[in-house]
Amino acid sequence: QVQLVESGGGSVLPGDSLRLSCGASGLTASSYAMAWFRQAPGKEKEFVAVINWRGALTYYEDSVEGRFTISRDNAKNTAYLQMKNLKLEDTGVYFCAAYLGVGIPHIPGDYHYWGQGTQVTVSS
Question: Among the residues of the chain, which ranges form H helices?
Answer without folding.
Answer: none
